[in-house]
Amino acid sequence: MSRETAVAAAAAFFDEGRFEKDLARRVAIASTSQEPDARPELERYLTAEIGPALAGLGFAWSTFENPEMAGVPFLVAERIEDPALPTVLTYGHGDTVRGHEGRWRDGRDPWTLSRDGDRLYGRGSADNKAQHTINQLGLEAALKARGGKLGYNVKALIETGEEVGSPGLRPFCRDQAERLKADLLVASDGPRVAPDRPTLYFGSRGVINFTLTVDLRQGGHHSGNWGGALANPGTILANALASLVGPRGEIRVQALRPTSLTDAVRKALADIEIDGGPGAPAIDADWGEPGLTPPERVYGWNALEILAFVTGDPAKPVNAIPGRAEAVCQLRFVVGTRPEEVVPAIAAHLRQAGFPQVVAAPARDTPMPATRLDPEHPAARFAAASLEKTTGKRPALLPNLGGTIPNDAFSEILGLPTVWVPHSYAGCSQHAPNEHVLRPVCREALTVMAGLWYDLGEPGSPLFAA
Predict the structure, then answer these.
(1) Minimum mean pLDDT among 171-175, 262-266, 287-291: which range?
(2) Phi and psi dihedrals of 328, rounded to 5?
(3) Are 435 and 127 in contact (CB under 8 A)?
(4) Would you identify the CATH topology of the domain 206-258+302-362?
(5) How far apart are CA 174 and CA 187, in angstroms?
(6) SS3 annotation, 311-336
(7) C-alpha–C-alpha distance, residues 359 and 347, integer Å
(8) Which of 234, 317, 437, 462 is buried most deeply by CB count within 10 Å?
(9) What are phi and psi of 360, to 5 degrees?
(10) How many CB atoms lie within 10 A of CB 281?
(11) Of all helices (H) and strands (E), which one includes residue 14?
(12) Where are the domains of the chain?
């Protein structure tokens, strides 16, 4: 059978209801990793749903305990046609954020997949259950079209702790490096640049959260008695923040300004337009680093954000000079910025700028490094040609995602070229009530993945490059 057979079979999975049925069954498993009492559902998602589905495609699978967080297991599956053949590793995560029950529009239950026009609502639908379901069904279509032989091996890694920072993923990959050994990663997470434009990305921005605290004295003091005589920690911190990031969001700390926005990256981003789809906020064209386009700011530059800032009690203010102020900040950063150097650089900048009272400290969240594969890499160019062949559209090529995923586990620890094919869109409400996927995107994504899995077994595939 042919490539066209694989693509048509994948479309039929959608048209005949198979995709929606599989997704509904998976959404119904309330596998949130953010609620410790729900941890048994993580194991059930792997053993009752993912493992049997992969076994039906000829995979042998096992689950493994997490070395860093109990009750947050991993599943590893292998489909080995011949140990001498090249191998593709695929990845997904079966956990979700909290369900936010009672906060969904029209009384929807987050754990029941529901259709409204072109939208399929359900917790985990976009992040990440629909995405790895699409990849598995696309693989099934390609496998059948090739008569049960892909011409290469496939391994799958499904984690259940991504929404709590992927604890244990990196040591697990180090410990299981031989079991996970492969030649290429093909996976899906995150959004397309626009709902109707197939997208590829080859890494992600890193992230680190940190706190800035000014703690001058115990409690507040009456502003009539002490105003003008006592330093105000809120005023100090506001000015300290203004020394870090300018009025248009530009970064003022030289050590946090990247040097990796190369001509090749600019070229890759030249035809990108950010479109979050219906209901997405309008782009603030004059926000961010001057001289850059919005895509360059999101995918090629660092962004310093103030996530929260409190002094006194904004809900119940009193006429008192507060004794303390605190801000929680975040840096999203591209390749070239090292997370372990961020907080020391900020502390040094604040001392030099005259704010010795401000204490900078890393937040409890685990920082994640930035990764990037050259868009001209053979695997990147091959995947782009495959997507264009299936859809007739020139895909968007992003050197890295604007958000953050644990890609370093694959690119740095396992040493793999990484190709990500996202199947969601920026307006999907992931991590919030009303999370959903778009049915037209899912249908096209099924055909995209069937074509890509098929093409990886063809002559000219990067798997067989000398």
Answers:
(1) 262-266
(2) -110, 125
(3) yes
(4) Alpha-Beta Plaits (3.30.70)
(5) 19
(6) ECCCCCCCCEECCEEEEEEEEEECCC
(7) 7
(8) 437
(9) -100, 135
(10) 8
(11) helix 3-15
(12) 3-204+370-464, 206-258+302-362
Using an 8 Å Cβ cutoff, are 360 and 346 in contact?
yes
Nearest to 93 by CA among 133, 128, 42: 128
Closest CA to 366 of 210, 175, 256, 258: 210
- Sign of the four-CA dihedral 352, 355, 356, 360: negative
Instruction: Please answer whether residues 326 and 310 qualify as being in contact, where contact means their C-beta atoms are separated by less than 8 angstroms.
Output: yes
The Cα–Cα gap between 192 and 423 comes to 7
Query: Which one, of 187, 152, 138, 81, lies nearest residue 416 by Cα?
Result: 187
* Nearest alpha-carbon partner for 375 in 396, 404, 346, 344: 396
Whether the CB-CB separation of 211 and 324 falls below 8 Å is answered with no
Write the single-letter amino acid at 7. V
- Among 244, 264, 263, residue whose Cα is nearest residue 254: 244
Q: Is the domain defined by 3-204+370-464 classed in CATH 3.40.630.10?
A: yes
466: pLDDT confidence band, cut at 50, 70 and 90? low
Give the list of residues 6+ apart from residue 200 with CB closer than 8 angstroms, or none. Answer: 380, 383, 384, 387, 395, 396, 397, 398, 419, 420, 421
Q: Kindly indicate the confidence band of residue 365, based on its pLDDT and cuts at 50, 70 and 90.
A: confident
Q: Is 102 helix (H, G, I), strand (E, B) or coil?
A: coil
